[in-house]
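The record is passed on directly below:
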Amino acid sequence: MDFLIFSGNSNKSLAESIVSRLGMRLGAATVSKFSDGEIMVKIDESVRGRDVFVVQPTNAPSDSNLMELMVMTDALKRASANTITAIMPYFGYSRQDRASEPRVPITAKLVSNLIATSGVDRVVTMDLHAGQIQGFFDIPVDNLYALPVFYKYMQDNNLCNDDTVIVSPDAGGVARARIYAKKFGMPLAIIDKRRSGPNVAKVMHVIGEIAGKKCILIDDMIDTAGTLTEAAVALMEHGAVSVKAMATHGILSGPAIDRISSSVIEKVIITDTIDNTRLKDFTKLQILSVAGILATSIERIHNKESISSLFTGN
């Protein structure tokens, strides 16, 4: 294959899974730091005239991982690569996608500008927190979906039936949960969380029939797991038999693991868009791989073939 795949330090295990599926090896590159912490990159093989793909999600430490991606891009550009595609399964700073209050930045737009300015020709990402981020770029952006790997998990575990309900943990995730419910042919429920006044405890209203049902909470990411675990309690209080959770991006920062451990959630299913191999022994966590979807997208992009079927989760 006349293209190369390189990886930064953010998620090498995913990059290795991708090249394994393609029957390739990772491109030779040294990505390290100077003694003062500045990032140092050296591409250790010729890339002249070749299509290059750089696997580098920008999860925490977001600043360092983003800088690694841009420095690698600059090195590849100066080494005369034909095209450079950034494979960013997790797009950091995506939650700051609009000015939600006065005098705040739109950081997702700033990061988009930085990536394009560094020399990236195309971005491939997965389950963007806000779809409009695609429009922040002046270069092509392919936003793929982890839905197929979750669908296979659901089928393999006999969860695609009328005894199971797809649940959005908040009003903001309804559109996402509806896509899953429609794809799986399952009913949908929504949790509406609100306060009746200042310093008043939150009230969780469940919209939909969940009594006697298995519930699966659907979200794009799990950060501190606060919303998720609160939603699970509300579902059980309203008669759910069990609660599982599915999210593409397992950020799992701060108290997330402790909260999940002590929660009523049976299982949390995430993907490997973020490297969580340190948690492989955590029994409540199951990690599915999106390497197959990304490998297919890389091959099709290089061959100038359509990847639109990957957008719809087919």
Observations:
- The two ends are 25 Å apart (CA to CA).
